Amino acid sequence: MKQKIVFATNNAHKLEEVAAILGDGFEVLSLREIGCDTDIPETSDTFAGNAMQKASFVKEHYGYDCFADDSGLEVDILDGAPGVYSARYSGGGSEANMDKLLLNLTGKSERGAQFRTVVALLIGKESHLFEGIVRGTIIEERRGEGGFGYDPIFVPEGYEQTFAELGSEVKNSISHRAKAVKQLAEYLLMTNDK
């Protein structure tokens, strides 16, 4: 029987990505599927804090074992910005966020960056954190149609294409979320086998 676990998101991209990484042993439920339509606050100034806040909300109000993630882009020369504010960096959507970032990097040759994800898991009475990081570079113009967020301007180390050009199969195997979720999956599979 599949183990049911809630992923505290309604983001279809993330759900798909995570369900693919976790595999057949788990039934991953979205917030919508458990009847949660609350906009869960994310008021922490760290990825770990925001992820734990979301997972705690679900566990407290709905009683399900749950995991939540928070992730973002950290640009070295911008002191880690946009960081926890990645999704709302410009106050607009993804296109506006990329525009603002590219504007802030105009004329800068140092374009190193990293995507970072922290996954918080609340299972039974235990809590765990898992972190994934992928280093790369911010390029000067968008490339590729796939992905979401900052994917069209981020080239991961060891590749020449952006996350948006690499396609979901490659991205899911090397991304920051993939790394954190693989740790989560290993932990869940290990505890599931006991």
Verbal overview:
The mean pLDDT is 92. A six-stranded mixed β-sheet has the order 2-1-3-4-5-6. With 194 residues, it is α/β, with parallel strands linked by helices. The chain has helices at residues 12-22, 47-62, 94-104, 163-166, 168-174, 176-193; strands at 3-7, 26-29, 66-75, 112-123, 126-138, 154-156. It is globular, with a radius of gyration of 17 Å. A hairpin with a 2-residue loop joins strand 4 (112-123) and strand 5.
Strand content: 15-25%
- Alpha-beta classification: alpha/beta
The helix count comes to 6
- Poorly predicted sequence stretches spanning 5 or more consecutive residues: none
Radius of gyration equals 17 Å
Mean pLDDT: 92
Please estimate the helix content: 25-40%
| Large-scale geometry | globular
SSE string, helix = H, strand = E?
EHEHEHEEEHHH
What structural keywords apply?
194 residues; alpha/beta; six-stranded mixed β-sheet; 6 strands; 24% strand; globular
Summed up:
By secondary structure, the chain is of the alpha/beta class. The protein has helices at 12-22, 47-62, 94-104, 163-166, 168-174, 176-193; strands at 3-7, 26-29, 66-75, 112-123, 126-138, 154-156.
Task: Write the SSE topology.
Blueprint: E1 3-7, H1 12-22, E2 26-29, H2 47-62, E3 66-75, H3 94-104, E4 112-123, E5 126-138, E6 154-156, H4 163-166, H5 168-174, H6 176-193
Parallel strand pairs: 1-2, 1-3
Antiparallel strand pairs: 3-4, 4-5, 5-6
Helix pairs in contact: 1-6, 5-6
